[in-house]
Specification:
About 65% of the residues lie in helices and about 5% in strands. With about 130 residues, the chain is mainly α. The protein has one domain: Four Helix Bundle (Hemerythrin (Met), subunit A), CATH 1.20.120.330. It has a two-stranded antiparallel ribbon. Helix 1 packs antiparallel against helix 2, helix 2 runs parallel beside helix 6 and helix 5 crosses helix 6.
Length: about 130
C-alpha cells in the first residue's frame, strides 16, 4: 500500500471516530480526531501530488504548515484553499479555533459551536478527498 492510500485510510478512520465522538458528546475526542483526520487527508493529497509533507515535530501537526508544502514551487493546498470561496470560510473557522497545544487541554466547547466546527472539518476534509486524493 502506498503512502497516499495509507494516509487516506487512516484519515477516514479518524473521521469516523470523530463522528462517533460527536454523537456521544465527547467533544475533545471529536475535535482531536477531526484535526488528525484533516492532517492525514492533507498529507495524502500532498503525497499523491508528488510532494513530501512534514511528518515530525509541531510542523507535522500544524495544518497551516502542511498546507504550505510546495509542489513545483507552489504552496499546493494553501493556494487551492485560498482560491476556493466555499472552502476558505471553513478553513478559517478551523484554523482560528485550533492550536496544536490544545491536545493537552480540556476544551470547554459549546455543543452548537462543536457542531459548526465539526461541519467545517468535515467540509474541508471531503473537499480535499474528492478533489485531490480520489
Amino acid at each position: 500500500m502506498n503512502k497516499t492510500e495509507n494516509h487516506r485510510l487512516l484519515a477516514l478512520e479518524k473521521l469516523r471516530l470523530a463522528e462517533m465522538a460527536i454523537d456521544e458528546e465527547l467533544y475533545n475526542a471529536c475535535i482531536e480526531n477531526c484535526h488528525f483526520a484533516l492532517e492525514l487527508i492533507m498529507k495524502a493529497a500532498i503525497y499523491k501530488a508528488g510532494g513530501t509533507p512534514p511528518t515530525s515535530s509541531k510542523k507535522g501537526h500544524d495544518l497551516l504548515e502542511i498546507s504550505k508544502v510546495k509542489i513545483n514551487g507552489v504552496k499546493f493546498l494553501h493556494k487551492k484553499i485560498l482560491s476556493t470561496r466555499t472552502v476558505l470560510p471553513l478553513w478559517l473557522k478551523i484554523y482560528n479555533r485550533w492550536d496544536t497545544d490544545q491536545r493537552y487541554q480540556y476544551l470547554n466547547i459549546d455543543p452548537l459551536e462543536m457542531d459548526s466546527l465539526f461541519d467545517a472539518y468535515r467540509g474541508v476534509f471531503k473537499w480535499i478527498e474528492n478533489n485531490y486524493v480520489d
